[in-house]
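Workshop exercise sheet. Pairs work together: one partner reads the sequence aloud, the other fills in the structure field after running the prediction. Swap roles for the next sheet.
Pair: D.N. / O.F.
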Amino acid sequence: MPQVILNQILKQLQSLELSELQQLNQAVQAQLTYQEQAAKQTAFHQALVTSGLVQNIKKTSHKPSIMRQLLEIQGKPLSQTIVEERR
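Structure field:
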């Protein structure tokens, strides 16, 4: 972050009310926690690659998983039917 932007933020801090400062503190703490976790994960992945346990780390998908509707089965439990058919 350029020093000019940081100085502007620090000047604006003086005009914030207590509740706004608390909200800002929570946001800063959340961001710090996120960055610490990301750094730990990156270090872990790098250690895996360096040790030769894996060749590369695939990016995870941020797509939400598909919610599927459960089906209700009539009669015997499905697991029991499968076991009987395999005999």
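Discussion prompt: Helices lie at 3-13, 18-51, 78-86. What would you look at next?
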